[in-house]
Write a structure and sequence with these properties.
401 residues, alpha/beta, Rossmann fold, 2 domains, 8-stranded mixed beta sheet, 21 strands
């Protein structure tokens, strides 16, 4: 979020009960250093008063075209804003916007703005499904307006048969960050990320796996999406929530992960192989659960397929390929060998035994190994390490791989 500090967002609020959630959006964006100016329709002010948004953002709130000292203020905001967000966007507001009406400050602003506009619809599910509402939204999308949601869930009147609920504040904030950050060379790029462990069946109950949490891969997927990329995340079992906007492919075994990577790889401009797939699997998995009372258990293991090596023939020309090397010895030497043997552009190395830098922790200390050198990074949150890795990938993308 620190990467959008100093940007200017206009937050439009129309008259729906979901307006109370918009307070959270205002607070989160302001806390990230964004300058937030709020515009309330007359109906919105019936749900949440202007003083609330002024306290949250530190800026006076606009409620009318006729406020003293605000002549042509809609034109100024339309010229200066980096983004306009309307949350909630009611059926009435959407209809007026689609028809080019300018009968209050918010609709006048929407006609004057040249920055991106993000609408977050919220209404009864039957109102949302009505052909007129769908026609209006289709018209606005055709004009380049971004529409987020609605979600399906409990509505104010207790119904929840279909979409109508405004998406949650965290998702709105994530899309705001993406709209403010997206740009060359990421927009339109396809990024494939692998994350987490894999599981190899010992019997119908037990598995062989490892300590990977998936945090690094999920952080990379989120960071790439925030920059504007279309992201596919192939994930082994993980307790993490998938990042918003990312296409999640869930797998269990190394073989399944290899198949998912092979399917998506030919179109990928970037591969970030952050997963920790199992290196071995039982040579002969048991058909039934092994009982402890039956005595000792001997396992014969065989190596699994090397997913990253197997991608060589399927890589898109010019794609940036990034491997990860989690070592317990000389991590840099292991990464340099991997870089050469697997024909990679970068290898992200770290030592599994270093405190704060192995699996199951939110931080990481990585070294970026490239064809031209070795760059150690300090101990960082995995989200920050992911941004640093993508900064280096961005250089390669800008150069054409």
């Amino acid at each position: 979020m620190s990467r959008i500090a100093g940007r200017h967002v206009v937050l439009g609020v129309s008259g729906g009960i979901a307006a109370y959630k918009t307070c959270v959006v205002a607070r989160r964006l302001t806390g990230a250093g964004v300058s937030v100016e709020t515009v309330l329709t007359a109906a919105a002010a019936e749900f949440v008063g202007p003083v609330t948004f002024e306290a949250l953002t530190g800026h006076p709130v606009v409620t009318s075209l006729w406020q003293s000292g605000r002549a042509l203020h809609h034109v100024r905001l339309g010229r200066e804003a980096d983004l306009v967000v309307v949350a909630p966007a009611t059926a009435h507001l959407i209809a007026r916007f689609a028809q080019g009406m300018a009968d209050d400050f918010l609709t006048a602003l929407l006609l004057a703005v040249r920055a991106p506009v993000l609408l977050c619809p919220a209404m009864n599910d039957r109102m949302y499904a009505h052909p007129e509402t769908q026609t209006n939204l289709s018209l606005l999308r055709s004009r380049g307006v971004e529409v987020l949601g609605p979600a399906t869930g409990p509505l104010a009147e207790g119904e929840a048969e279909g979409p109508g609920r405004m998406v949650e504040p965290e998702e709105i904030v994530a899309h705001v960050e993406r709209l403010l950050r997206r740009g060359a060379p990421w927009t339109g790029r396809r990024v494939l990320v692998t994350a987490g462990p894999t599981r190899e069946a010992l019997d119908p109950v037990r598995v062989l796996t490892n300590r990977s949490s998936g945090r690094m891969g999920y952080a990379l997927a989120r960071a790439a999406w925030l920059r504007g990329a279309d992201v596919t995340l192939v994930s082994g079992p993980s307790a993490l929530e998938p990042p918003p906007g990312v296409a999640l492919v869930s797998v269990q075994s190394t073989e399944q992960m290899a198949a998912a990577v092979a399917e998506a790889l030919p179109l990928a401009d970037v591969l970030l192989m952050a997963a920790a797939p199992a290196d071995y699997r039982p040579a002969a998995p048991l058909a039934r659960k092994a009982k402890r009372g039956e005595g000792g258990l001997k396992l014969e293991l065989e190596p699994t397929a090397d997913i990253l090596s197997g991608t060589a023939a399927r890589r898109k020309k010019g794609a940036v390929i990034v491997g990860f090397a989690l070592e317990t010895g000389d991590a840099v030497a292991g990464a340099q060998a991997k870089l050469k043997a697997k024909q990679l552009d970068l290898v992200i190395a770290n030592d599994a035994t270093e405190p704060g830098a192995g699996p199951e922790v939110p931080t990481n200390r990585v070294t970026i190994v490239s064809r031209t050198g070795v760059e150690p990074l300090p101990l960082l949150a995995k989200s920050e390490a992911a941004e640093a890795v993508l900064d280096r990938v961005q250089v390669l993308l800008s150069r054409g791989g």
